[in-house]
Amino acid sequence: MSRPSQTLFSAALVGPALVGAVRKLDPRLMVRNPVMFVVEVVALLTTILFVRDAATGAADLAFSGQIILWLWFTVLFANFAEAVAEGRGKAQAESLRRTRTETLAKRLTGRGDAYETVPGNGLKVGDVVLVEAGDIIPSDGEVILGIASVNEAAITGESAPVIRESGGDRSAVTGGTQVLSDAIRVRITAAAGSTFVDRMIALVEGASRQKTPNEIALNILLAGLTLIFVFAVASIPSFASYAGGAIPLIVLVALFVTLIPTTIGALLSAIGIAGMDRLVRFNVLAMSGRAVEAAGDVDTLLLDKTGTITLGNRQATAFRPVRGVTEQELADAAQLASLADETPEGRSIVVLAKEGYGIGARDMGHLDATFVPFTAQTRMSGVDLAGAQIRKGAVEAIVAAAGGGPVATRGSSAALAYARTASTEGVEEVRAIADEVARAGGTPLAVSRDGRLLGVVTLKDIVKGGIRERFAELRRMGIRTVMITGDNPVTAAAIAAEAGVDDFLAQATPEDKLALIRKEQAEGKLVAMCGDGTNDAPALAQADVGVAMNTGTVAAREAGNMVDLDSDPTKLIEIVGIGKQLLMTRGALTTFSIANDVAKYFAIIPAMFLGLYPQLQALNVMGLASPQSAILSAIIFNALIIVALIPLALRGVAYRAVGAGALLRQNLLIYGLGGILVPFAGIKAIDLAVTALHLA
Amino acid sequence: MTVNGWIQIALFCAVVLALVRPLGGYMARVFSGERTLLSPVLEPVERGLYRLAGIDRTHEQHWLAYATAMLVFHAAGFVLLYALLRLQAVLPLNPDGQGAVAPDLAFNTAASFITNTNWQSYGGETTLSYLSQMLGLTHQNFLSAATGIALAVALVRGFSRASVRTVGSFWVDLTRGTLYLLLPLCVVFTLFLVWQGIPQTLGGAVATTTLEGASQTIAVGPVASQVAIKMLGTNGGGFFNANAAHPLENPTALSNFAQMVSIFAIGAALTNLFGRSVGRERQGWAILAAMAVLFLAGIAITYGAESAGSPVLNALGLPGGNMEGKEVRFGIVASALFAVVTTAASCGAVNAMHDSFTALGGMIPLINMELGEIVVGGVGAGLYGMLVFVIVTIFVAGLMVGRTPEYLGKKIEAREVKMAMLAILCLPLMLLGGTALATVVAAGLAGPANAGPHGFSEILYAFTSAAANNGSAFGGLAANTTFYNTTLAAGMLVGRFFVIVPALAIAGALAAKKTVPASSGTFPTDGGLFVGLLVGVILIVGGLTFFPALALGPIVEHLAGGLGQTFAAGG
Q1: What is the pLDDT of residue A418?
Q2: Which residues participate in Mg(2+) binding (chain A) (predicted)?
Q3: Is B372 left (phi over 0), alpha (psi -120 to 50) or beta?
Q4: 3-class SS of residue A480
Q5: Chain B nearest CA to A523, separation (Å)
Q6: Distance between CA atoms of residues B362 and B305, nearest Å
Q7: Which residues from B are below 8 Å from A290, CB to CB?
Q8: Pairing mode of beta strands A141-145, A184-188
């Protein structure tokens, strides 16, 4: 379940963001963003000069005053973008913070069940606490004794309680969640202030945000471009003096600020914060921005078969009778044998017989039947009716039982030779069908009635609907999918083919997984995987993007660099999409910002030099009204475009799963060509407005 | 413009294209240390040289060691050349008795030749002895060219290698580049030029009597050999002051054509070496295609502008193209093509006065240089300059496919971007900074011969030519002054070494990275889309910076000309 989505600019967001925009003018904060810092410095210097000019009564104060005003707006708009992005996170942090209300903990003293009540924030790592029904779990920890149902709605938004128990893969509990039934003993694993919820708050608020590697590189590029434009603009006064004139400082400043990449500079951090925010809305917590970026770069996805590619359990899909037996007969017998079988497989046989052959489920009591449960020794189960023994189970076990011979192990042909009572033909036929089923990725289950072999029930892993299309999508994105399964290679290959994954790892052990990740990484690929168990921890740590399930163990959660609160392994695919979207938004706005310069040059250069060479009027291709209105329009456009693009920065560029070539063509057309054309129209429109309002 | 003119241009392009694969393949073998056709003859020489210099040819260098070797080598070359010029009066092979070269001119000339610029503030035949020409200049013509190629090869290795610390050996690359590539090509080309009528002698100037009975001194010398390397190595320093416009330096239409082809030959073929080295020749063709787009646009504008001629003269009833400052032997198309080729390629040899071109016609050579001479470019320098732009392009637009940028399997990260920006920064710094200085100080303002925007263009051209290591002169600027000699020399040195060192740093960083295998999610870099994108980024990031300067120079001159206005002296 995802959190209720907010509108981009709700009143509750805009107010604090406006305040935040002003507060962020603090140079100590601004310096983190080199481009906007430069704009602020320039705005400050021109303001000081303006005050001096105003005191001495210089001419053209109205014009320079307006330019300076828009310089400040440029800085404020950038700060506003960041503040809005942070504000959206803060709203979520508030709801989280409410879960962190002061709790009292029952710390066990180590003597039996005796405990002392201490404040939750006084707990240390390693303390063991008792949490009983109705208590709030005081801090993150691991269940060391007991089983309980826990309401984790506070962090996941999911109201259905979940089970937490010691020992297994569901032993991690989160501070702030509530135990609904039973009692558990929890060993605390996080000190106050560094719990999961604390980290989550810090992440969504953007407080602990560090620049990601790609952001750092982009900042270098933007700083370099800024420096180039310093040279370009600083050399103009000399050129002008050669031509026998002078250019007012305020005009040079206007040219400089419009040329430097303010658009992307202003929106860069908002894009980053919004990317993290999108993940959070998706109920995934990334421990760092670096992980989100890496998600976009993933080359190989390791997906567990069970739960991700297939529905959790095998299901009956077909009845395959031997010659002389009808499907109806086989279905009837199989259903009878399964009536008391409460395993998912057993239930699926009852359902298949009912839905496929119209055999209604019968009541065991009425039939006077005795249920024969499955044991590891017999490897079969069934019912004893009045005068009939029906069995279903592993093929060799049923064959052996039918033949009265010893339970033969597979492939032991000497043992199989004993299977005589049943017609040899029937045995051969059942084996042939069973082999066929296995090759197709299914599990064969033989059925016999009174020692007579009836046929085989096909149990299959059911591949999730639509998953094949998802994998095709991933392939178009250039991502290879590898299915991880404990099945034997034959079964694994069949399911892999059905699901459409690119490769599979059969009979996989945790070591195999780790080795596979290392091998892929050695080839230069980035690998993503998800896992929940403690034995997944090394692989999660090794993977470039390791998504731990929230239901998983503490070890898994610590090893991964993302946590999925919904514990849905399929989400890995969406996480990759979000990572790509973040990178695309950054690239699109950078391209747009740089492409904008063409129009700005054509607006300002003729205006600037018109006094020196009237012939340059020919470069005024937009037909702007006057030099002053041209310069003012350019600087206004430069500021307003930031505001106009805030929604895009927060929402992200739409991502479609197509090849890189198509994606590039589409984005280049919109943000490259658009980036060249839009400002021509925009500056012209603003010029018309400026002229109509007699601003210049 | 005439059909004949375009046929000449098309023929030129066809011949250059035909040379790309064979020459590229040969160079790939040379620089990977494989045996070539010439190995039986040259290998003993090569081994002898290594033994003499104590070099282990199998020892490869880290990029820092490579850069240090290159810098030390150039520092030594600089000192040697400077000393030679200052002492030429007392050294042998000086039949015309040339005196010592002045300190500022010697400094400028030494800087000019070690940086492959070959800006000439002097007139060759009136200033330099044969020893200075042959030992000093020709020597540097070879080595600066070989250095450029070596550097490009080192950067290419950065892309083609994975997870290694070394980028090759500077000494081996320099030796093999000179021995296997430049020397054999020059021998063949020299013989061709001698056949075309270029002198090759160590005898002094020839005194002769003209048809009118006047006596004339005709300068000769070892011209053909120097012309061969000046073209093949994109040096451009002419034996004579008139450079390739001089009848003894460029006697026939065929020699003119062959000289233009030889300017582009190695630079264009290096893109093929690049493609081969990274395992896909298409990648090399894509780079060459981007160069071709810019080149064809440039030649179309210059040829068109020169054919249209001056609007001021046309209005006075003098129709036809602009022939001012052009050799009648070559005419408009061969002059326009030569001008675009020589500035695109960092050569700087000229067969016409660029100063006398129309405003737009002369602006294209300026723009070619301002883009960093990446349109084919100087031997080696063009390729590494272009690859720097590729890195910026990939970084800007690569994110748009939803992956952190990568080129040929190499992730482009902070370090590469930092170095690429450093390399790109130094051109506007030296070019605009130098021009800004010259347009305000008296020593600078004394230089230009013309007033108004054209005078501005003359100064701008000089600093552009120096910082971009081109060496061609617009003409009209009195550059042999202490001010221009020193400031231009500074421009040349910064423009060369502040690009080379970052480029090597990129090579080192890339070589150390893993190569990510390509998939359908990878940014495609061998198609038309990428070529267009690259051209766009070059024009916007590399070109727009100079828009204000161009507006005040050629653009305003062109617009004024269209209105029938001229700029009087002092106006």
Answers
A1: 38
A2: 532, 536
A3: left
A4: strand
A5: 7
A6: 9
A7: none
A8: antiparallel
